[in-house]
Design a protein that fits this description.
binds S-adenosylmethionine; about 350 residues; about 35% helix; alpha/beta; three-stranded antiparallel β-sheet; about 20% strand
Length: about 350
Amino acid sequence: MPTKTKIVNYKAISLFSNCGAGDIGFRKAGFQFEVMAELDPRRLEVCLLNHPYAEGVKDDLRETWTEVVEKYKARCSNEPPFLLSACPPCQGMSSARSNRGKEEDADAGSKDSRNLLVEVIAKVASELKPKLIVVENVPAFLTRKVRHPETNESVSAASLLISRLAEDYEVFPLITDLCDYGVPQTRKRAFLTFVKKDLEGLKQFTETSTIPFPRPTHSDEFNGGISISQALKEMHLPILDAKTSEKAKSNDPLHFVPVWNDWHYSMIAAFRRIQVQVLGRMTNVQSVEKLRLVWRTFCVQNVIRLYYARLLKTKKEIIDLLKGFGLRVTEECRLTNLRQPLQRQAVISEATIQYIHLKIVF
Ligand SMILES: C[S@@+](CC[C@H](N)C(=O)[O-])C[C@H]1O[C@@H](n2cnc3c(N)ncnc32)[C@H](O)[C@@H]1O
């Protein structure tokens, strides 16, 4: 994807880079990646297309981290990187699957060796001494317990990393929802920003009690989130239809949908009916009072989830439906692709469904 790039001069390295998508943001902010490391060779190949200036290190970082250090030093000699960006894999953090054990179960957490990959970040940092380290992960990164490799204590992966870097770095944690920064999707993420203790700017942060994170640009306080329909509209893409192979694709090779068989297609198309049934089942009444009561139990900070299928005229239909119940919808938030909640409700287990968050005033 073409990107508008700022004048680049801050040297950076990236670990667990994947295709380098997140690091494009850093590049736009003025960082230049010298070395990028990724396990999967195909992902690394794409990453280097996205960051042509960088040198790649492939394979398992537990084996290759010294190569990252050597390559960086060969390119930049003794100048420390300004930034180390790292986004270790998050699959092992989740306690959703039973074989991962409870979040508090440190033995189960350590069984997935990916949960200890933060060690690699600490090793590279201790060799290259970057001024800033930014680690991004799912919120469970801050809570999922693992066994400390030396003390055997039960600690979170984040705490393990913090303890490894404590001597040289001050850490600033943040849990945020990326929709507050204009991503058309609800995506909660944890960030740890480590600032080198001898960095002049750190004094400013501590003296003024500020934190090194940008302010949200799209939270409720500001403009509100960007919906998926707004985001798609900006791309000026033709509307697709999963019914036939001609209508399921466009001239843009990246803009296509799978062709569904008749059964799948009609099931999704019938979703409106099911949606009404779901609401009916949830409420079991026509009374607005009872509806409010039931929905409150579904609410997290006044945000409720309503399911809908892609083929419907989503927002308007749902809003009309809610208005019919006498509820006022104040804000459309964003969309997320989620199968699980639907599976739990056993409504349409196979459908690719998305859900919409609506803010309701009770
Ligand atoms: C969560 S993704 C990183 C996403 C990235 N920040 C982006 O914006 O696309 C984690 C990446 O770490 C890679 N990875 C997992 N284990 C690794 C290892 N042992 N060594 C190097 N890379 C690894 C995975 O292949 C995956 O691409």
